[in-house]
Design a protein that fits this description.
Blueprint (H helix, E strand, L loop, with lengths): L1 H26 L2 E7 L6 H20 L8 E7 L4 H15 L3 E3 L4 H14 L2 E4 L13 E3 L4 H15 L4 E7 L3 H16 L3 E8 L8 H10 L3 E4 L3 H13 L5 E4 L21 E4 L8 H14 L5 H20 L7 H11 L5 E3 L2 E6 L5 E2 L3 E6 L2 E4 L2
Parallel strand pairs: 1-2, 1-3, 3-4, 4-5, 6-7, 6-8, 8-9, 9-10
Antiparallel strand pairs: 10-14, 11-12, 12-13, 14-15
Amino acid sequence: MKMKKIMALALTAAMTVSLSAAFAQADDTFKIGAIGPTTGPAAQYGSAVVNGAQVAVDEINEAGGIGGALIEYKGEDDELDNEKSINAYNSLKDSINMQILVGPTTSGCTIAVAEKTKEDNMFQITPSGSSQDCTKYDNVFRVCFSDPAQGEKSAEYIADKQLGTKIGIIYDSSDTYSAGIEAAFEAKAAEVQLEVAVKEAFTADSNTDFTAQLQKCKDAGVDLIFLPIYYTQAGTILTQAYSMGLDVQFLGCDGLDGMLAMDNFQKELAEGVIFLTPFDSNAEDELTQNFVKKYQEAYGETPNQFAADAYDAVYAVKVACEEAGVTPDMETSDICEALKKAFTEINIDGVTGAGMHWTPEGEPEKLPKFMLIKDGAYVPAD
């Protein structure tokens, strides 16, 4: 009996040591999660975000981590669905005890998940959620330009470069991203004296046939069509415009990034299309070239703007954590409070912009770039 008691005590002690070691190990690593649609119609975006963040995590861990602490990282698929994005968030909390969220990728999902991160007071940085409402809470920051900023910059660019005198707009009124950019574009267009001759909307239920909208643009004699939409719908519009003999300048925003990688799309139809983006994969600076090389080696393709935004998001978290003295054993809420302040004080050079810094409202300050599709590749428009 005495021997059994000793063995029981020894087993209990061993289990206690084992559990203590597990908890110590858990407290030694930062837990960072990412969310995006890695399957479905927007998989180009979500996969890029999850993969871009992974490249940054791997680099940081190889260099010794954040203040000496390594990163445990996991990405989740939300299939471009708000409810599934919330499920992905809960899954990351359960599976890795997530402390910091990079994501979600799209605006609607970012807004939905922000309700949860606000309740938990978890720091959230979306690489590409561009709706103004994405950052309505003080715990949410973003790397990309907001929808209003994209709309305003696009109108200014068209006016400055004299790309069109009669403007047509085709947008998705059922999508917060598209509608937000359109509203800001139209307001700025009036300010810079651009004539918007045609404004045509579609919805998620009517996004396969755009001949009616294109015909109105053709009848009005527009010389530029603004497309604040995603590349999947833009590809259909370009195909149908070609079949109608409509030869005008097309200009869009970051949603067009990824168009050339679409399956069964004739790349020559995108010749001359211009879109706003903060990232140029052909840039010659060492930082960009290093990122592009590692991404290509890991995933067999050239990174797009979404991958670059996620890469910068992780590095911004690293710099902010080190600036604020954040350690992985801190409570999630305490990490959040420290990062909210630190993000307004850091200044970083990333692949999406030099000297990036953030306002207390979570908005990034950096210069935009416009890319041109030429000979089946992306090149600087200027």
